[in-house]
Amino acid sequence: MTIKLYSGPVSMFGAKAEIGVLEKGIACDREFVPFSIATLYEPKHPVVARVNPKAQVPVLVDGDLELYDSTQIFEYLEDICPEPALWPHDPRQRARARLAELESDEVFFPNVITLMPRARAAAGDDAVAAALEVIERYYRTIDARIADRDYLAGTFSYADIAFFMAQFFASFLGAPPPASLASVSAWRARVGRRDSVRKVAGAMADYLRAQGLELPPL
User: Fold this and answer.
1) Banded pLDDT at 38 (limits 50, 70, 90)
2) Is 100 exposed, middle or buried (0-12, 13-18, 19+ CB in 10 A)?
């Protein structure tokens, strides 16, 4: 039975899961749930509403197994398809990769959410300025962290997938990595050249441009 992934055309977390599936080469049927810029994810897809208490994508269904949360999906993909490994084999590097993936989702991205139009209007200028400060500080932290390496935790991993999509969202919301951060710029180009990333992020960029938004190049 083919795995099914429920995602959305502008879901950062859904894009993470889809890139992971493509990197693993796993046969997967990806379905976009209803979405529009005006109404967002309303009405909720019945499978997503039933499986995830938050009624959010991504949701992955493999036979009688139903999962939600992109990180939990990463863990399952790694268990059913260990190679190519997307968590480093070395325990210390694997721990660093897991921490970097968590930071991307839970430390960096909440500030990106503040830049989204509805959240920005509700947050106010001071909160937006604070979010932008945290975002830039995090970019500088990552730039220093990868000054002597190609990826966030040694080899290409789920951590790179997570941060690439998070900074992709930040970029089209007006907070791209500063061009002066050479290590981040090189990393961004390196990850952006991967076929899986070009396919998923490229399709998302096409969708957003079709809605009249201007996006920086991948």
Assistant:
1) confident
2) buried
Is the CATH number 3.40.30.10 carried by domain 3-80?
A: yes
- pLDDT at position 1 over 80: no
Angle formed by the axes of helices 12-24 and 158-172, nearest 10°:
140
Distance of CA 161 to the CA centre of its chain: 6
CA distances from 43 to 9, 79, 119 (A): 15, 33, 20
The domain locations on the chain are: 3-80, 91-210
CB atoms within 10 A of CB 149: 12
In Å, how far are 2, 4, 71, 122, 125 from 104, measured between CA atoms? 30, 25, 11, 23, 23
